[in-house]
Design brief:
By secondary structure, the chain is an all-beta fold. It is built from no helices and 13 strands.
Length: 209
Amino acid sequence: MNGSPGTNDPLPPVLPPVRVNEALTHSDPESDWIELYNPTATNVNIGGWFLTDDFYTPEKYRIANGTTISPGGYLVFTGTSSFELGANGFKLSEYGEQVYLFSGNATTNLTGYYQGFDFGAAPNGVSFGRYVNSQTNVFFVLQSTNTPGTNNAPPRVGPSSFPRSCIIRRISAAPMTFWTSSSSCTTSPRRTCRCTVPSPTKSGTAWRR
């Protein structure tokens, strides 16, 4: 039905690769938010597209008709004024779940494009952001600083409240002793610790792979 007999089928529409770029998922007592980014060189109309926290239920929050993102621009949706409203409204879970964008048209039908991420638990007030490493692998990681409406910050390495300790950077086939600066020593807040790594070939030494 509505095909093209005798001719080649038309190519599917080319949809702009707008992407989920950042999200605040643990925001007590404020509101969650989701940031989208337009990597193209033209305005993109995302009216009729959808945001969701469940990949298998894409049509949760329909973006208003006429909503556009400028070239290389960002658009932030605040939950209390957008995706948390209505019968299908949702909040992002601080314990981890999903955030996805799906393309749609004026008649509320999905049109084939989607992009998004699964994410884990988050500390209060710390956002997740899209991060591309040197091997071009894409991750959705906790950020060192929240950056709604602008370029993402570097990844957050670890909570500053975690104690520092000896970090083993190399394993040798023979026992080795090295000295390292550490704040986990019990005798003072900061001193030099001596660490010994046993040989994996020594009899009676238990090793895990």
